[in-house]
Amino acid sequence: MLALDDLMARLAKLPGLGPRSARRLALHLFKRKDQVLSPLIVSLQNAYKEIKLCQRCFNLDDQDPCRLCQDPKRQSPMLCVVADVGDVWALERTAMFKGHYHVLGGLLSAVDGMGPDKLTIYPLLERLKGGGYQEVLFAFNATVDAQTTLHYIMGQAKDLPLQFTSLAKGVPLGGELDYVDDATLAVAFQGRLGL
Prior knowledge:
11% strand; alpha/beta; 4-stranded parallel beta sheet
């Protein structure tokens, strides 16, 4: 039973899973050992061996540089800066952005001990100094840590001839004003667009 207990404990540490969900998942895996567990083991081993960080943008891929950095169709003078790889995946699902990315690996946070040296801010600054970009788009969540990170990077790159932009924030599509919080409404007013 030790191996099963160990598996459930490790599964419970995954995001979105607690002890009960881990037990159900472990039971499902063992009920379908040949159809589910065995192929999953192979996939995990392959991912462990083959997936790496792109040393240019810090995205995950089995190539370095990654497929996005190598794509000749991505000739936009815009660099999109995101906190995590999941943000790249979300933006790519929209098929709207055709430029290059830079993944910071998190956001500045004094509480969590995340300083500039723990993120890929310095490689980002080197990329920006290398030229080729006219606009830096910050695609961050609307948090205090995100604003701190944005202002830090802008301060470090203030002498570079770049335009800094961020994703629009405010009332979500389909949102009802009566249910939107005051801070979101205030941001929506400040960032209003001409029609």
